[in-house]
Amino acid sequence: MYFSLARTTSYLDSLLTLLSSSPSTAQALDALDAFIIPDFIALPAVVQTIRAAATAAPPPLLVGAQDCAGEDFGPFTGEVSPAVLREAGCAIVEVGHAERRRLFGETDEVVRRKVAAVVRNGMVPLVCVGEVAPGDGAAGEVVRQVAAVLEGLEDGADVVLAYEPVWAIGAPEPASAEHVRGVVRRVRESEVVKGRKGRTRIVYGGAAGPGLWGRLGGEVDGLFLGRFAHEPEQFVKLIHEVAGVEREKLSDVPYVAQLKNTSDFGQITVGNAQKWDSSEPAQGYFSYAGGDEIVQLAQSNQQLVRCHTLVWHNQLPARVRDSNFDNATLIRVLESHIRNVVGHYKGQCYSWDVVNEAISDDGLSYRSSIFLDTIGPAYIPIAFKAAAEADPDAKLYYNDFNIEFASAKTDKAVELAKMVQDYGAKIDGIGLQAHLIGGFVPSASALQSNLERFTSLGLEVAYTELDVRIPVPVSAADVAQQELDYANIVASCKNTARCVGITVWDYSDDHSWVPAIFTGYGSALPFDADKKPKSVYWAILNAWGPKRECRRH
Ligand SMILES: O=C[C@H](O)COP(=O)(O)O
Fold first, then answer.
1. Tell me: the pLDDT tens digits for 271-317?
2. How does DSSP classify residue 227?
3. What confidence tens digit (pLDDT) does each residue in 510-531 have?
4. What GO terms in the biological process aspect are recorded for it (predicted)?
């Protein structure tokens, strides 16, 4: 209850103008299920206005209602029937918002009846859940709520869960990314969600605003916006952000200017735009605008492109991640995705990260994912084979973290590479992500021995996502250690004949993922927030020495 009727009308007019004002906005909108939820009185007019402005059916902007009755018709004066909402053109109905629970005494049982009513009337319930106070019990509380409100629901129905920690609603800041990821993961792993046949998407709400999406690291399926979408420009900005975070970075002029300096950067990696959720946002619908933008930037500057990534358990659309595809169907879906995406970029990628992070964190097994659980480890060589067919000249990589030093995970990565080779599929390289911690980086010779475990299989190697995080605020001692760590990494690659590259995971501290993910750490990159080289930049150059050749194998 924030907008008057007049404000809703002017908001919608401005929003529709903005959404149709540029092809990239239209494309970003196409990649998402964007919706607005006006009040009941405005709703029919909003539906009509959106339909009238749309050039395609269904319109790209869906309309939702803020609540509904648990019954379709009858003696419930003052209530709004879900059947009437459907008749009015609603696609989504929000139920169980924290304010309805707190102010109007709605219980899980009331919410459960409303969820069932929304589904019964052919709409998607947007079910709000969230713990009342922050603390360790959050995930348990939310999982219990989800189980209660979905109980008895038709199994195949699509559901959107809006995870909104009650204490974050209306707060200045959202919950930390770490907290959100932890709770959402527990909800996804819960019996009630895992056992469902229908799609269960989880979006985050509660002071959700600019910058949050990138920090959530692909764990949620979307954002549920309140205040931060009250201005149409902000809503459009967030649509862009969710559709592909790179675009926002590309509007940072000093960032792009420095990126074009080929003395420092001989190659660019596409960060998010080629991941499955961006490149194939709907089944069989491919969206390349975000990836193309980065590839063209690199090409205009004669830089190589590392293309990233085809098969990963994260940033995978829920329709695949939570699917019940059988073995043959999932193989078809996997191969089709790879064929299309690699085919689109044929001849433009120096390398592809074909499979990313397929090994469990303890290194003892392959990581559980829809691919492993449905197809078995054979999905890995199947993916490599499909990629090789789509672009025989691209170097095909397996990419992972914590394989930069001797560990069970490194042993497993060696086993994985051999498995792909034994299968007869082409694998050219191993990408060692190298998200490292200052003071915990092995010596150059130990790092080199590790690299040689892979090169002895006939593969090339590269450090693909290097950053060395240190505690912030930084101390002189930690910075000195970080310089040594970077120098050891560089020396290990320089001294390994088939080490072909070192890529930092973004280059300036303002665009680093580290502060949002690793509480208390930062300053992980060679350039500061003003894009000025830091001492580790010079440590990197010194470690490489005067002769800087570009190796290609
Ligand atoms: O309905 C909106 C949500 O409750 C979040 O509101 P907020 O983003 O303004 O905190």
1. 888 988 778 866 776 778 778 888 999 999 999 999 999 999 988 87
2. G
3. 889 888 778 899 999 999 999 9
4. xylan catabolic process
Active-site residue flag, 357:
yes
Query: Which one-letter amino acid corresponds to residue 144?
Result: R
Query: Could you tell me if the CB of 334 is within 6 A of ligand 1?
Result: no
Which are the contacts of 523, defined by CB distance < 8 A and separation ≥ 6?
Answer: 469, 470, 472, 474, 479, 482, 509, 534
Which of 170-179, 329-338, 520-529, 533-542 shows the lowest per-residue confidence on average (mean pLDDT)?
170-179
| Domain with residues 246-430, CATH architecture | Alpha-Beta Barrel (3.20)
- What value does the mean pLDDT take over residues 408-427? 98
71 is annotated as an active-site residue: no
* CATH number of this structure's domain 434-548: 3.20.20.80
What the block records as the tokens of 28 is 């970003």
**pLDDT (average), residues 414-442:** 98
Domain covering 5-243 assigned CATH 3.20.20.70 in the classification: yes
CB of 227 closer than 6 A to ligand 1?
yes
Task: Choose between 229 and 290: higher pLDDT.
Answer: 229
Beta bridge partners of 359: 366
d(CA 28, CA 25): 5
Which residue has the least CA distance to atom 6 on ligand 1?
A: 226
Among 227, 231, 235, which residue has the most ligand 1 atoms within 8 Å of its CB, making it the best to mutate? 227
Q: Is the CB of 135 under 6 A from ligand 1?
A: no
Looking at 94, 357, 460, 483, which residue is catalytic? 357
Is the CB of residue 131 less than 8 Å from the CB of residue 141? yes
Q: Is 4 exposed, middle or buried (0-12, 13-18, 19+ CB in 10 A)?
A: exposed
